[in-house]
Amino acid sequence: MPISINQSNARVSFKNLIFRLIAVSCLVVLFYACAENKMEQVDKRLNVLMICIDDLNDWVGCMNGHPNAKTPNIDKLAAAGALFTNAHCQAPLCGPSRASVMTGLRPSSTGIYGMIDDDKIKQDNPVTADVVFLPEYFKNNGYHTMGIGKIFHGHAPANILDESGGRIPGFGPSPQNKFVWNGRINKAGYGNTSTDWGAFPESDTLMPDYHSAQWAIDRLKKDYQQPFFLAVGFLRPHVPWYVPPKWFDLHPLADIETPPYLKEDLDDLPAIALEIDDMPMMPTTEWAIRSGEWPKMIQAYLACISFVDFYIGEILNALENGPNAENTVVVLWSDHGYRMGEKNTFAKHCLWEEATNAPLIFTGPGVQKGTVVSAPVEMLSIYPTLLELCGMESNPQNEGASLIPMLAGKADGLPPSYAITTYGWENHSVRSEYLRYIRYNDGSEEFYDHRNDPNEWNNLATKEGQFRKDMDELKAFLPQKKAPYAVHSSYSFNPYFIEDKKKHSEN
Protein backbone atom coordinates (compact mmCIF):
# COMPACT_ATOMS: atom_id res chain seq x y z
CA MET A 1 0.00 0.00 0.00
CA PRO A 2 1.58 3.34 -0.97
CA ILE A 3 2.62 5.60 1.93
CA SER A 4 0.96 9.00 2.05
CA ILE A 5 2.95 12.19 2.24
CA ASN A 6 1.57 12.87 5.73
CA GLN A 7 2.74 9.43 6.94
CA SER A 8 6.21 10.03 5.44
CA ASN A 9 6.51 13.42 7.16
CA ALA A 10 5.43 11.88 10.46
CA ARG A 11 8.17 9.25 10.23
CA VAL A 12 10.78 11.93 9.42
CA SER A 13 9.59 14.04 12.34
CA PHE A 14 9.74 11.02 14.64
CA LYS A 15 13.32 10.27 13.53
CA ASN A 16 14.29 13.90 14.14
CA LEU A 17 12.75 13.71 17.58
CA ILE A 18 14.77 10.58 18.35
CA PHE A 19 17.98 12.19 17.15
CA ARG A 20 17.26 15.27 19.22
CA LEU A 21 16.58 13.20 22.33
CA ILE A 22 19.82 11.30 21.80
CA ALA A 23 21.71 14.56 21.35
CA VAL A 24 20.20 16.08 24.47
CA SER A 25 20.98 12.90 26.42
CA CYS A 26 24.59 13.07 25.27
CA LEU A 27 24.81 16.68 26.36
CA VAL A 28 23.34 15.82 29.77
CA VAL A 29 25.80 12.94 30.18
CA LEU A 30 28.65 15.17 29.09
CA PHE A 31 27.52 17.92 31.49
CA TYR A 32 27.41 15.58 34.46
CA ALA A 33 30.69 13.97 33.44
CA CYS A 34 32.33 17.40 33.38
CA ALA A 35 30.68 18.33 36.68
CA GLU A 36 31.82 15.05 38.22
CA ASN A 37 35.30 15.58 36.86
CA LYS A 38 35.31 19.09 38.32
CA MET A 39 34.11 17.70 41.64
CA GLU A 40 36.93 15.16 41.56
CA GLN A 41 39.40 17.96 40.95
CA VAL A 42 38.08 19.84 43.96
CA ASP A 43 38.36 16.69 46.05
CA LYS A 44 42.01 16.33 45.09
CA ARG A 45 43.01 19.57 46.79
CA LEU A 46 45.56 18.75 49.45
CA ASN A 47 44.34 17.84 52.91
CA VAL A 48 46.16 18.94 56.06
CA LEU A 49 46.99 16.81 59.08
CA MET A 50 48.42 18.99 61.85
CA ILE A 51 49.97 17.33 64.91
CA CYS A 52 50.61 19.69 67.85
CA ILE A 53 52.69 18.46 70.79
CA ASP A 54 52.84 20.18 74.17
CA ASP A 55 56.23 20.96 75.78
CA LEU A 56 58.34 18.77 73.45
CA ASN A 57 61.94 19.97 73.24
CA ASP A 58 64.56 18.60 70.84
CA TRP A 59 64.76 15.23 72.59
CA VAL A 60 63.77 13.24 69.52
CA GLY A 61 66.05 10.84 67.70
CA CYS A 62 66.17 12.75 64.43
CA MET A 63 67.36 15.90 66.22
CA ASN A 64 70.00 14.15 68.37
CA GLY A 65 68.77 16.08 71.36
CA HIS A 66 69.27 13.30 73.89
CA PRO A 67 71.09 9.96 73.59
CA ASN A 68 68.29 8.05 75.33
CA ALA A 69 65.49 9.33 73.08
CA LYS A 70 63.34 6.65 71.41
CA THR A 71 61.05 8.21 68.83
CA PRO A 72 60.91 5.88 65.80
CA ASN A 73 57.69 7.34 64.41
CA ILE A 74 58.70 10.99 64.56
CA ASP A 75 62.05 9.97 63.07
CA LYS A 76 60.30 8.13 60.23
CA LEU A 77 58.13 11.17 59.54
CA ALA A 78 61.20 13.42 59.42
CA ALA A 79 62.93 11.07 56.95
CA ALA A 80 59.85 11.21 54.70
CA GLY A 81 59.87 14.99 54.47
CA ALA A 82 61.65 18.09 55.75
CA LEU A 83 63.03 18.43 59.27
CA PHE A 84 63.89 21.87 60.67
CA THR A 85 66.46 21.33 63.40
CA ASN A 86 66.73 25.03 64.23
CA ALA A 87 63.03 25.95 64.54
CA HIS A 88 62.00 28.30 67.33
CA CYS A 89 58.76 29.30 69.01
CA GLN A 90 57.54 32.89 69.17
CA ALA A 91 56.98 32.62 72.94
CA PRO A 92 58.29 30.07 75.48
CA LEU A 93 54.83 29.63 76.97
CA CYS A 94 51.84 27.65 75.68
CA GLY A 95 49.21 30.39 75.42
CA PRO A 96 51.11 33.08 73.49
CA SER A 97 53.01 30.54 71.40
CA ARG A 98 49.87 28.85 70.12
CA ALA A 99 48.06 32.16 69.65
CA SER A 100 50.96 33.27 67.47
CA VAL A 101 50.86 30.15 65.29
CA MET A 102 47.08 30.29 64.89
CA THR A 103 46.82 34.03 64.22
CA GLY A 104 50.00 34.29 62.16
CA LEU A 105 51.03 37.30 64.26
CA ARG A 106 53.87 37.94 66.69
CA PRO A 107 53.24 38.47 70.41
CA SER A 108 54.81 41.92 70.04
CA SER A 109 52.09 42.75 67.52
CA THR A 110 49.10 41.36 69.42
CA GLY A 111 50.12 42.00 73.04
CA ILE A 112 49.40 38.34 73.84
CA TYR A 113 52.40 37.74 76.10
CA GLY A 114 50.69 35.49 78.63
CA MET A 115 47.91 32.94 78.79
CA ILE A 116 44.61 33.72 77.11
CA ASP A 117 41.27 32.00 76.71
CA ASP A 118 40.74 30.77 73.14
CA ASP A 119 37.48 32.68 72.73
CA LYS A 120 39.04 35.93 74.00
CA ILE A 121 41.89 36.18 71.50
CA LYS A 122 39.78 38.46 69.30
CA GLN A 123 37.97 40.27 72.12
CA ASP A 124 38.82 43.85 73.08
CA ASN A 125 41.96 43.81 70.92
CA PRO A 126 41.99 45.95 67.76
CA VAL A 127 44.95 44.01 66.33
CA THR A 128 43.26 40.62 66.48
CA ALA A 129 39.61 41.70 66.07
CA ASP A 130 39.55 40.82 62.36
CA VAL A 131 42.21 38.11 62.35
CA VAL A 132 41.40 34.84 60.57
CA PHE A 133 42.66 31.85 62.53
CA LEU A 134 44.60 29.18 60.64
CA PRO A 135 41.85 26.50 60.72
CA GLU A 136 39.29 29.21 60.03
CA TYR A 137 41.14 30.27 56.87
CA PHE A 138 40.91 26.72 55.55
CA LYS A 139 37.23 26.53 56.51
CA ASN A 140 36.53 29.75 54.63
CA ASN A 141 38.15 28.19 51.57
CA GLY A 142 35.95 25.12 51.44
CA TYR A 143 37.76 22.78 53.81
CA HIS A 144 36.08 20.47 56.31
CA THR A 145 37.78 21.39 59.61
CA MET A 146 38.23 18.90 62.44
CA GLY A 147 40.22 18.89 65.65
CA ILE A 148 40.73 17.30 69.03
CA GLY A 149 42.90 18.02 72.04
CA LYS A 150 45.10 21.01 72.73
CA ILE A 151 45.36 22.99 69.50
CA PHE A 152 45.07 26.55 70.77
CA HIS A 153 45.79 26.93 74.49
CA GLY A 154 42.58 25.26 75.59
CA HIS A 155 41.23 23.55 72.49
CA ALA A 156 39.87 25.94 69.84
CA PRO A 157 37.64 29.01 69.60
CA ALA A 158 33.96 28.40 69.00
CA ASN A 159 32.69 27.70 65.49
CA ILE A 160 35.98 27.29 63.63
CA LEU A 161 35.87 23.47 63.65
CA ASP A 162 33.14 21.61 61.79
CA GLU A 163 33.88 18.58 63.97
CA SER A 164 35.36 18.92 67.44
CA GLY A 165 36.48 16.12 69.71
CA GLY A 166 36.99 18.64 72.49
CA ARG A 167 39.65 18.53 75.14
CA ILE A 168 39.56 16.68 78.43
CA PRO A 169 40.15 19.34 81.13
CA GLY A 170 43.47 19.23 82.91
CA PHE A 171 46.51 17.07 82.26
CA GLY A 172 45.43 13.94 84.12
CA PRO A 173 44.82 11.28 85.04
CA SER A 174 46.57 11.75 88.38
CA PRO A 175 47.02 9.61 91.48
CA GLN A 176 45.25 10.59 94.67
CA ASN A 177 48.50 12.04 96.00
CA LYS A 178 51.54 13.24 94.11
CA PHE A 179 54.46 10.84 93.98
CA VAL A 180 57.36 13.25 94.50
CA TRP A 181 56.86 16.97 93.94
CA ASN A 182 54.16 18.93 95.74
CA GLY A 183 55.35 22.27 94.43
CA ARG A 184 56.28 25.35 96.34
CA ILE A 185 54.33 28.58 96.49
CA ASN A 186 56.40 31.63 97.34
CA LYS A 187 55.21 33.86 100.13
CA ALA A 188 53.47 36.19 97.69
CA GLY A 189 51.29 33.27 96.61
CA TYR A 190 52.12 33.22 92.91
CA GLY A 191 50.91 30.08 91.18
CA ASN A 192 51.59 26.40 91.61
CA THR A 193 52.56 23.55 89.33
CA SER A 194 51.27 20.13 88.38
CA THR A 195 54.87 18.98 88.00
CA ASP A 196 55.40 15.43 89.25
CA TRP A 197 56.68 12.16 87.78
CA GLY A 198 56.07 8.43 87.98
CA ALA A 199 54.53 5.42 86.28
CA PHE A 200 50.76 6.02 86.23
CA PRO A 201 48.11 4.88 85.28
CA GLU A 202 48.29 1.19 84.36
CA SER A 203 46.75 1.40 80.90
CA ASP A 204 47.10 3.72 77.91
CA THR A 205 43.34 3.65 77.53
CA LEU A 206 43.10 5.88 80.61
CA MET A 207 45.17 8.62 78.97
CA PRO A 208 43.46 11.52 77.16
CA ASP A 209 46.04 11.35 74.36
CA TYR A 210 45.04 7.75 73.64
CA HIS A 211 41.46 8.85 73.01
CA SER A 212 42.57 11.82 70.91
CA ALA A 213 44.54 9.45 68.71
CA GLN A 214 41.60 7.05 68.29
CA TRP A 215 39.29 9.94 67.37
CA ALA A 216 41.72 11.12 64.71
CA ILE A 217 42.28 7.57 63.40
CA ASP A 218 38.54 7.13 62.89
CA ARG A 219 38.40 10.27 60.79
CA LEU A 220 41.42 9.36 58.70
CA LYS A 221 39.68 6.16 57.63
CA LYS A 222 36.93 8.15 55.90
CA ASP A 223 36.71 9.61 52.42
CA TYR A 224 35.40 13.17 52.28
CA GLN A 225 33.53 15.14 49.64
CA GLN A 226 35.78 18.12 50.28
CA PRO A 227 39.38 18.54 51.44
CA PHE A 228 39.92 18.43 55.19
CA PHE A 229 42.01 20.17 57.83
CA LEU A 230 42.51 17.87 60.83
CA ALA A 231 44.39 19.05 63.93
CA VAL A 232 45.39 16.70 66.75
CA GLY A 233 46.79 18.20 69.95
CA PHE A 234 48.73 15.89 72.29
CA LEU A 235 49.09 16.84 75.97
CA ARG A 236 52.20 14.85 76.84
CA PRO A 237 55.04 15.45 77.56
CA HIS A 238 53.49 18.41 79.47
CA VAL A 239 53.66 17.87 83.22
CA PRO A 240 52.81 15.83 85.16
CA TRP A 241 55.15 13.26 83.64
CA TYR A 242 52.75 10.38 84.13
CA VAL A 243 52.42 7.55 81.61
CA PRO A 244 51.88 3.80 82.11
CA PRO A 245 54.79 1.63 83.32
CA LYS A 246 55.59 0.08 79.92
CA TRP A 247 56.84 3.44 78.66
CA PHE A 248 59.19 3.76 81.63
CA ASP A 249 60.44 0.25 80.86
CA LEU A 250 61.66 1.51 77.47
CA HIS A 251 64.09 3.76 79.34
CA PRO A 252 65.90 1.77 82.09
CA LEU A 253 67.02 4.08 84.85
CA ALA A 254 70.55 2.66 84.78
CA ASP A 255 70.97 3.91 81.19
CA ILE A 256 69.70 7.44 81.72
CA GLU A 257 72.06 10.34 81.02
CA THR A 258 71.40 13.75 82.50
CA PRO A 259 71.96 16.81 80.26
CA PRO A 260 75.04 19.07 80.55
CA TYR A 261 74.87 21.36 83.57
CA LEU A 262 77.07 24.13 84.96
CA LYS A 263 76.37 25.16 88.54
CA GLU A 264 77.74 28.68 87.94
CA ASP A 265 75.77 29.08 84.69
CA LEU A 266 73.61 31.96 85.97
CA ASP A 267 76.46 34.03 87.40
CA ASP A 268 76.99 36.14 84.26
CA LEU A 269 73.32 36.95 83.62
CA PRO A 270 71.68 40.37 84.07
CA ALA A 271 69.37 40.85 87.05
CA ILE A 272 66.23 40.99 84.92
CA ALA A 273 66.98 37.54 83.48
CA LEU A 274 67.07 36.09 86.98
CA GLU A 275 63.88 37.95 87.89
CA ILE A 276 62.05 36.50 84.88
CA ASP A 277 63.44 33.07 85.68
CA ASP A 278 62.13 33.14 89.25
CA MET A 279 59.83 30.09 89.30
CA PRO A 280 59.76 29.05 92.96
CA MET A 281 57.14 26.39 92.40
CA MET A 282 59.40 24.41 90.02
CA PRO A 283 62.14 21.96 91.05
CA THR A 284 65.70 23.24 90.80
CA THR A 285 68.53 21.19 89.40
CA GLU A 286 70.46 21.56 92.62
CA TRP A 287 67.52 19.98 94.46
CA ALA A 288 67.27 17.22 91.82
CA ILE A 289 70.97 16.41 92.26
CA ARG A 290 70.80 16.36 96.06
CA SER A 291 67.66 14.23 96.13
CA GLY A 292 68.83 11.80 93.44
CA GLU A 293 65.67 12.51 91.41
CA TRP A 294 67.29 14.00 88.31
CA PRO A 295 67.73 10.71 86.39
CA LYS A 296 64.16 9.73 87.34
CA MET A 297 62.82 13.02 85.99
CA ILE A 298 64.72 12.52 82.73
CA GLN A 299 63.39 8.97 82.52
CA ALA A 300 59.82 10.17 83.04
CA TYR A 301 60.10 12.91 80.41
CA LEU A 302 61.58 10.47 77.88
CA ALA A 303 58.84 7.95 78.70
CA CYS A 304 56.18 10.58 77.99
CA ILE A 305 57.83 11.39 74.67
CA SER A 306 57.92 7.71 73.66
CA PHE A 307 54.26 7.36 74.61
CA VAL A 308 53.28 10.28 72.39
CA ASP A 309 55.54 9.05 69.60
CA PHE A 310 53.72 5.71 69.53
CA TYR A 311 50.31 7.31 69.06
CA ILE A 312 51.68 9.68 66.46
CA GLY A 313 52.74 6.50 64.66
CA GLU A 314 49.22 5.09 64.96
CA ILE A 315 47.78 8.23 63.39
CA LEU A 316 50.34 8.21 60.58
CA ASN A 317 49.61 4.53 59.91
CA ALA A 318 45.92 5.34 59.63
CA LEU A 319 46.73 8.07 57.13
CA GLU A 320 49.02 5.80 55.13
CA ASN A 321 46.48 2.98 54.97
CA GLY A 322 43.46 5.22 54.38
CA PRO A 323 42.00 6.91 51.29
CA ASN A 324 43.91 10.18 51.77
CA ALA A 325 47.54 9.04 51.84
CA GLU A 326 48.60 10.56 48.53
CA ASN A 327 47.10 14.02 48.88
CA THR A 328 47.70 15.04 52.50
CA VAL A 329 50.26 17.44 53.91
CA VAL A 330 51.45 16.60 57.43
CA VAL A 331 52.94 19.20 59.76
CA LEU A 332 54.22 18.27 63.21
CA TRP A 333 55.30 20.93 65.68
CA SER A 334 55.68 21.69 69.36
CA ASP A 335 54.67 24.95 70.99
CA HIS A 336 58.14 25.40 72.59
CA GLY A 337 60.97 23.47 74.15
CA TYR A 338 61.55 22.62 77.80
CA ARG A 339 64.48 22.80 80.20
CA MET A 340 65.22 19.52 81.93
CA GLY A 341 67.76 20.83 84.41
CA GLU A 342 69.63 23.25 82.17
CA LYS A 343 70.19 26.60 83.90
CA ASN A 344 69.08 25.14 87.23
CA THR A 345 65.40 24.49 86.60
CA PHE A 346 62.78 22.27 85.02
CA ALA A 347 60.55 24.62 83.03
CA LYS A 348 60.15 26.40 79.70
CA HIS A 349 59.78 30.13 80.63
CA CYS A 350 62.96 31.67 79.21
CA LEU A 351 64.67 33.01 76.08
CA TRP A 352 67.44 30.39 76.05
CA GLU A 353 67.90 27.56 73.56
CA GLU A 354 66.34 24.70 75.49
CA ALA A 355 63.04 26.59 75.79
CA THR A 356 62.82 28.11 72.32
CA ASN A 357 64.00 25.25 70.07
CA ALA A 358 61.39 22.60 69.21
CA PRO A 359 60.65 20.09 66.42
CA LEU A 360 59.09 21.22 63.13
CA ILE A 361 58.47 18.69 60.34
CA PHE A 362 56.57 18.88 57.03
CA THR A 363 55.78 15.96 54.71
CA GLY A 364 53.57 15.44 51.68
CA PRO A 365 53.27 16.69 48.09
CA GLY A 366 55.69 19.53 47.41
CA VAL A 367 58.08 18.49 50.19
CA GLN A 368 61.47 17.01 49.27
CA LYS A 369 62.07 13.75 51.17
CA GLY A 370 65.08 13.61 53.45
CA THR A 371 65.50 17.38 53.67
CA VAL A 372 67.24 18.62 56.81
CA VAL A 373 67.36 22.39 57.33
CA SER A 374 69.73 23.85 59.91
CA ALA A 375 68.89 27.48 59.14
CA PRO A 376 66.79 29.16 61.85
CA VAL A 377 63.05 29.30 61.16
CA GLU A 378 59.98 30.30 63.14
CA MET A 379 56.81 28.43 64.10
CA LEU A 380 55.14 31.60 62.80
CA SER A 381 55.90 30.24 59.31
CA ILE A 382 53.52 27.28 59.70
CA TYR A 383 50.47 29.31 58.64
CA PRO A 384 51.80 30.81 55.37
CA THR A 385 53.64 27.60 54.47
CA LEU A 386 50.48 25.48 54.69
CA LEU A 387 48.56 27.97 52.56
CA GLU A 388 51.18 27.87 49.83
CA LEU A 389 51.55 24.09 49.96
CA CYS A 390 47.79 23.77 49.46
CA GLY A 391 47.74 26.22 46.57
CA MET A 392 45.73 28.81 48.43
CA GLU A 393 46.05 32.57 48.31
CA SER A 394 48.31 34.00 50.99
CA ASN A 395 46.82 35.78 53.97
CA PRO A 396 48.16 39.35 53.99
CA GLN A 397 47.77 39.45 57.78
CA ASN A 398 50.52 36.81 58.25
CA GLU A 399 53.81 38.10 59.65
CA GLY A 400 55.70 34.86 59.06
CA ALA A 401 57.56 33.82 55.91
CA SER A 402 56.63 30.77 53.85
CA LEU A 403 59.17 27.93 54.02
CA ILE A 404 58.35 26.56 50.57
CA PRO A 405 61.86 27.10 49.09
CA MET A 406 63.37 25.18 52.00
CA LEU A 407 60.76 22.41 51.75
CA ALA A 408 61.74 21.90 48.13
CA GLY A 409 65.36 21.37 49.18
CA LYS A 410 66.45 24.74 47.74
CA ALA A 411 67.81 26.43 50.86
CA ASP A 412 71.19 27.08 49.23
CA GLY A 413 71.44 30.63 47.99
CA LEU A 414 68.67 31.97 50.20
CA PRO A 415 69.48 35.01 52.34
CA PRO A 416 70.23 34.31 56.03
CA SER A 417 67.15 33.71 58.16
CA TYR A 418 66.46 34.65 61.77
CA ALA A 419 64.06 33.48 64.46
CA ILE A 420 62.59 35.82 67.06
CA THR A 421 61.21 34.72 70.42
CA THR A 422 59.41 37.09 72.80
CA TYR A 423 58.75 36.64 76.52
CA GLY A 424 56.85 39.50 78.08
CA TRP A 425 56.86 43.11 76.91
CA GLU A 426 60.03 44.04 74.97
CA ASN A 427 62.05 40.99 76.02
CA HIS A 428 63.30 39.33 72.83
CA SER A 429 65.75 36.78 71.53
CA VAL A 430 67.11 36.75 67.96
CA ARG A 431 68.56 33.44 66.76
CA SER A 432 70.76 33.18 63.67
CA GLU A 433 72.31 29.94 62.46
CA TYR A 434 75.06 30.05 65.08
CA LEU A 435 74.37 33.04 67.33
CA ARG A 436 71.77 34.09 69.89
CA TYR A 437 71.22 37.68 70.97
CA ILE A 438 68.88 38.53 73.87
CA ARG A 439 67.74 42.01 74.80
CA TYR A 440 65.52 42.82 77.78
CA ASN A 441 63.29 45.85 78.18
CA ASP A 442 65.72 47.52 80.59
CA GLY A 443 68.50 47.37 77.96
CA SER A 444 70.29 44.36 79.46
CA GLU A 445 71.80 41.92 76.96
CA GLU A 446 73.04 38.38 76.48
CA PHE A 447 74.99 36.98 73.54
CA TYR A 448 76.02 33.39 72.76
CA ASP A 449 78.03 31.67 70.03
CA HIS A 450 76.80 28.11 69.49
CA ARG A 451 79.89 27.13 67.53
CA ASN A 452 81.92 27.30 70.73
CA ASP A 453 79.19 27.26 73.38
CA PRO A 454 76.21 25.03 72.45
CA ASN A 455 74.97 25.09 76.07
CA GLU A 456 74.89 28.91 76.26
CA TRP A 457 77.07 28.94 79.36
CA ASN A 458 79.23 31.95 78.44
CA ASN A 459 77.39 35.27 78.11
CA LEU A 460 79.64 37.13 75.67
CA ALA A 461 77.72 40.38 76.21
CA THR A 462 79.80 40.80 79.37
CA LYS A 463 83.03 41.05 77.33
CA GLU A 464 82.94 44.87 77.26
CA GLY A 465 82.11 45.49 73.64
CA GLN A 466 84.27 42.77 72.12
CA PHE A 467 81.24 41.39 70.24
CA ARG A 468 79.35 44.66 69.77
CA LYS A 469 79.32 44.51 65.97
CA ASP A 470 77.81 41.00 65.91
CA MET A 471 75.31 41.94 68.60
CA ASP A 472 74.20 45.05 66.74
CA GLU A 473 73.68 43.05 63.54
CA LEU A 474 71.19 40.81 65.34
CA LYS A 475 69.72 43.69 67.32
CA ALA A 476 68.54 45.16 64.00
CA PHE A 477 66.05 42.28 63.68
CA LEU A 478 64.23 42.99 66.95
CA PRO A 479 60.49 43.60 66.44
CA GLN A 480 59.56 47.22 65.84
CA LYS A 481 56.05 46.83 67.23
CA LYS A 482 55.65 47.14 70.99
CA ALA A 483 52.03 46.28 71.66
CA PRO A 484 50.85 46.71 75.25
CA TYR A 485 49.51 43.67 77.04
CA ALA A 486 46.24 42.47 75.57
CA VAL A 487 43.38 42.96 78.01
CA HIS A 488 42.65 39.25 78.34
CA SER A 489 46.24 38.00 78.37
CA SER A 490 48.14 37.57 81.62
CA TYR A 491 50.41 35.22 83.53
CA SER A 492 50.27 34.82 87.29
CA PHE A 493 52.86 32.08 87.90
CA ASN A 494 55.69 34.56 88.17
CA PRO A 495 55.77 37.85 90.10
CA TYR A 496 57.65 39.52 87.26
CA PHE A 497 54.77 39.09 84.83
CA ILE A 498 52.14 40.47 87.15
CA GLU A 499 54.16 43.67 87.53
CA ASP A 500 55.07 43.65 83.83
CA LYS A 501 51.43 43.77 82.82
CA LYS A 502 50.71 46.60 85.26
CA LYS A 503 53.49 48.65 83.67
CA HIS A 504 52.81 47.86 80.03
CA SER A 505 49.04 47.75 79.65
CA GLU A 506 46.84 50.40 78.08
CA ASN A 507 44.49 50.28 81.07
Features:
disordered N terminus, 4-stranded antiparallel sheet, 507 residues, 32% helix
Task: Write up what this structure looks like.
By secondary structure, the protein is of the alpha/beta class. It is 32% helix and 14% strand. It has a single domain, classed as Alkaline Phosphatase, subunit A (3-Layer(aba) Sandwich), CATH 3.40.720. It has helices at 5-43, 72-79, 94-103, 107-110, 134-140, 208-220, 245-249, 271-276, 285-291, 294-321, 353-356, 382-389, 404-407, 468-475, 495-503, and strands at 47-53, 82-84, 87-88, 144-149, 163-166, 197-199, 228-234, 241-243, 328-334, 339-340, 346-347, 360-363, 371-373, 377-378, 419-422, 428-431, 435-439, 445-449. An eight-stranded mixed sheet has the order 5-4-7-1-9-12-2-13, with helices on both faces. A four-stranded antiparallel sheet has the order 15-16-17-18, covered by helices on one side. Helix 6 packs parallel to helix 10. It is globular, with a radius of gyration of 27 Å.
CATH class: Alpha Beta
The helix content, as a percent range, equals 25-40%
pLDDT < 50 stretches: 1-10, 26-30, 34-43
Instruction: Report the strand count.
Output: 18
Oligomeric nature of the chains: single chain
Overall pLDDT level: 91
Distance between the termini: 105 Å
Strand content: 5-15%
Tell me what the CATH architecture is: 3-Layer(aba) Sandwich
Number of helices: 15
